[in-house]
């Protein structure tokens, strides 16, 4: 089986949904910006790409009609390079990375583009009551339609996560993101040019004015008196990301310079009402399959869907919040465009390892509907 290498990564800035910097950009155009940049950085001939798979949490409207195929064409890949779309909600583009990892390992491909996009601004996410399956709407099977905010409240209650700890984590996310921006550590961002010529080069989300006082004054967002607020949750967002993966043969043939080697991936299911704990078993899965322990891991990029679930996951897996977790901030500050985030985390792990001279890193996130997913990689350069 061929080893699988991460060659390059790119992402757009992340805009706030409905009122941010990217509201005027179609999601297929947004994703093509990330794919073009990732391909240029990789130095791989466009005709060497075997497949493009794009993750999208809500593949409907402008994100429908197999947006992955459209992005392949819009990105300048030859017409004979196929494209597909995959949805695993929040882990959609991490699933696209996993598909490329498997295809290359199996000898069915040598170069795979894994991308992700979400424009919540431009997709209605309208689900009518008659569309809900009665057995999965709090019925005899599960409640897969449960509000994500309610799942965060459930995790906070079950794992005894305090409001104070959640707000502290949120403040940490903003401060680290602002520090990373000031230091130029977001080296994977590619600017987006709007139709009026405006250049969008930074994420909308990080707030210099955030403080514990401001965060603690915010009202409960989902349950009266509950600890989950808008301040310790990720905002709805727009954005796109892409990575280029290659096997050993392609690395040798094209003289590529791998940034990291993918070692393992893992996916698991959990109760939908507790979806935030999904990374616990997913992280354990990649560690068990490689024989590593959390002490061997230099950095963990854990998607900050809600502060409550991040804290619970860190406690249960042994992730050191100060030493290992999200060194450049996370989704509470940056935002979480559902289909984009998985591939963004993979690129972030590669950058973190390079910037911190680390060796092993994990990208992981919880998934709406009750799932978890993780990927483990080793720095090469």
Write up what this structure looks like:
- By secondary structure, the chain is of the alpha+beta class.
- It is built from eleven helices and twelve strands.
- The chain has helices spanning 27-42, 67-74, 92-105, 148-158, 163-183, 212-216, 248-254, 278-290, 307-317, 331-334, 338-356; strands at residues 4-11, 15-16, 51-55, 83-86, 111-119, 192-193, 199-200, 237-247, 260-269, 299-302, 360-367, 371-379.
- The strands form two sheets. Strands 1, 2, 3, 4, 5, 8, 9, 10, 11 and 12 form a ten-stranded mixed β-sheet that branches. Strands 6-7 form a two-stranded antiparallel sheet.
- Strand 6 and strand 7 form a beta hairpin.
- Helix 1 (27-42) crosses helix 2, helix 3 (92-105) packs across helix 11 (338-356) and helix 4 (148-158) packs across helix 9 (307-317).
- It is globular.
How would you sum up this structure in a few lines?
By secondary structure, this protein is α+β, with helices and mostly antiparallel strands.
List the helices and strands and how they pair.
Layout lengths: L3 E8 L3 E2 L10 H16 L8 E5 L11 H8 L8 E4 L5 H14 L5 E9 L28 H11 L4 H21 L8 E2 L5 E2 L11 H5 L20 E11 H7 L5 E10 L8 H13 L8 E4 L4 H11 L13 H4 L3 H19 L3 E8 L3 E9 L2
Parallel strand pairs: 3-4, 3-5, 10-11
Antiparallel strand pairs: 1-8, 1-9, 2-8, 5-8, 6-7, 9-12, 11-12
Helix pairs in contact: 1-2, 3-11, 4-9, 8-9
């Amino acid at each position: 089986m061929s080893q699988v290498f991460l060659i390059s990564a790119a992402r757009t800035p992340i805009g706030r949904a409905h009122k941010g910097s990217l509201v005027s950009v179609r999601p297929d155009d947004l994703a093509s910006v990330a794919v073009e940049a990732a391909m240029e950085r990789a130095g791989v001939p466009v005709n060497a790409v075997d497949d493009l798979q794009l993750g999208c949490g809500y593949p409907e409207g402008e994100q429908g009609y197999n947006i992955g195929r459209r992005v392949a064409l819009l990105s300048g890949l030859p017409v004979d390079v196929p494209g597909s779309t995959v949805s695993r909600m929040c882990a959609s583009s991490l699933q696209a990375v996993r598909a490329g990892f498997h295809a290359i390992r199996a000898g069915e491909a040598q170069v795979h583009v894994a991308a992700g996009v979400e424009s919540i601004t431009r997709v209605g996410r309208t689900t009518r009551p008659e569309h809900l399956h009665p057995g999965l709407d709090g019925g005899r099977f599960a409640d897969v339609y449960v509000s994500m905010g309610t799942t965060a409240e459930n995790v906070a209650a079950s794992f005894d996560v305090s409001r104070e700890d959640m707000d502290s984590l949120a403040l940490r996310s903003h401060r680290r993101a602002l520090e990373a921006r000031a230091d130029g550590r977001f080296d994977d961002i590619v600017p987006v040019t709007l139709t009026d010529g405006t250049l969008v080069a930074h994420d909308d989300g990080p707030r210099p004015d955030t403080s514990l006082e401001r965060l603690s004054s915010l009202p409960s967002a989902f349950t009266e008196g509950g600890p989950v607020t808008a301040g310790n949750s990720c905002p709805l967002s727009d954005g796109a990301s892409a990575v280029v993966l290659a096997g050993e043969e392609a690395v040798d043939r094209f003289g590529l310079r791998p940034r990291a080697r993918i070692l393992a991936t893992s996916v698991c299911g959990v109760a939908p009402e507790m979806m935030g704990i999904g990374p616990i078993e997913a992280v354990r899965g990649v560690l068990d399959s490689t024989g590593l322990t959390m002490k061997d891991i230099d950095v963990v990029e854990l998607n900050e869907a809600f502060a409550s679930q991040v804290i619970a996951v860190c406690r249960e897996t042994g992730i050191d919040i100060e030493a290992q977790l999200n060194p450049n901030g996370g989704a509470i500050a940056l935002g979480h465009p559902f289909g984009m985030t998985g591939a963004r985390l993979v690129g972030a792990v590669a950058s973190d390892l390079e910037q911190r001279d680390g060796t092993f890193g994990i990208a992981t996130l919880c998934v709406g509907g009750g799932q978890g997913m993780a990927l483990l990689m080793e720095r090469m350069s």
